[in-house]
Specification:
The chain is α+β, with helices and mostly antiparallel strands and about 350 residues long. Helix content is about 35%, strand content about 20%. The protein has helices at about 10-20, 60-80, 115-125, 140-150, 160-180, 180-190, 250-270, 285-290, 320-325, and strands spanning about 30-35, 40-45, 80-90, 95-105, 155, 190-195, 205, 240-245, 275-280, 300-310, 330-335. The strands form 3 sheets. Strands 3-4-2-1-11 form a 5-stranded mixed sheet. A 4-stranded antiparallel sheet has the order 5-8-10-9, sandwiched between helices. Helix 1 packs across helix 2 and helix 4 packs antiparallel against helix 7. Flavin mononucleotide binds near residues 23 and 277. This is Nitroreductase family protein.
Length: about 350
Amino acid sequence: MRTRDALDAATVESLLAAAVAAPSIHNTQPWRFGLDVHHQVLEVRSAPQRTLPLTDPLHRAQYLSVGAAVFNLRLAALHLGRRPEVRLLPDPYEPGLLATVRLTGSVDAEDQPADPGLYEAIARRHTSRMPFTGRPVPEPIVAEMTAAAHAAGARLHVPDIAGTRRLLRPTAAAEARNHAHRDRTAETLTWITAPGRDSSYGIPVTALGPPDAAGRMPMRDFTGPLRAVRRPALWFERHVQLGLLWTAHDRREDWLRAGQALQYVLLTATAHGLRTSLLHQAMEWPDLRAATALPRHKRCHPHVLIRFGYGPDGAVTPRAPGLSAAAGAGPRITTGRVSP
Ligand SMILES: Cc1cc2nc3c(=O)[nH]c(=O)nc-3n(C[C@H](O)[C@H](O)[C@H](O)COP(=O)(O)O)c2cc1C
């Protein structure tokens, strides 16, 4: 495909459909897309109305979510035979412009990530909050997930049993604090969709999981005081398999890189038939986030825990269609220059 091939509506639609399939905190889908047709640039902005002021006051989780969407855009562009040139935070005068993706010439053999299975995994990946079987994930798959995080500019630490317990402790503590915090619980509840209610955002109660009957796995309880919609407890896998995603710095661009790495890891896992879910609670309290940092690394800024294994697929959560995720009913079309 030549560089100057027009970005037709079908191409834009498939790019954005892939982008919005990314995971996002509480399924807030905190992104907006613009399109500079003339320069073949997709612009990715944050959506200020879809933030979580108490849970995510610095917007770090929002950036992780947007980073995941950018990774999907990259994969979709490669799938369509276009080379994506990604710039993070390209305009210091427009802080809400988080990334641009310019579609340049045709793909060549060196372009990464090249694995076509990753693109297929975009639609198959869903957060699975159910118990997993506990069957160990073969080491080569874990190594591939670790390499994926590294290739995207982050790190994935997969701890042993003792290290896993160490990481789950601050998560359990955060879960308890969230429970006790009435306003945070209320904020979370606004993103939970009651049965029968139609919404393109938030998490339907049917996608939530049960608590662990053994009390070991601190899965997030999204329902707070609404005990009636909580599922009955089930026994979770005894030895949970976890990865801690972290970066060596903690700037906005690191959060966007960590988001891309997160999605690279999740899709690698999905392509191998694994299920995944995320535990972000500890990251929402500065002292508990610090407690999950790896003691042997002087500069370790944790972002999220990724739980992985074999088990039931997660339920599908809704999405606002890519085109209406852009400002108004369609992408914000511009013909001007995107600032350097
Ligand atoms: C930064 C971030 C943090 C998340 N934290 C949690 C969490 O703590 N618990 C959880 O069950 N899901 C968590 N999720 C998963 C989202 O709830 C999920 O991606 C969203 O509801 C969309 O569903 P899907 O992943 O099945 O497409 C998180 C996702 C992101 C990107």
